[in-house]
Write a structure and sequence with these properties.
4 helices, about 75% helix, globular, mainly alpha
């Protein structure tokens, strides 16, 4: 649904920043996550892997 799409798009923005070298805590704050652990949980839930796997 639309909410899931919004979560995926936000995650894609966050991964783009993180891959560009922005620290994860800053990435989380810039993309609307409550904190770095919220971003990490969202990655695991939507992608099924830890955030480190997506950034390697």
């Amino acid at each position: 649904g639309p909410k899931t799409l919004a979560r995926i798009l936000r995650l894609q923005r966050a991964l783009g920043l993180a891959r560009a070298g922005v620290p994860l805590a800053d990435t989380a704050a810039r993309t609307g996550y409550a904190d770095q652990s919220h971003l990490a949980r969202e990655v695991r839930e939507l992608a099924g892997v830890p955030v480190t796997v997506l950034l390697s």
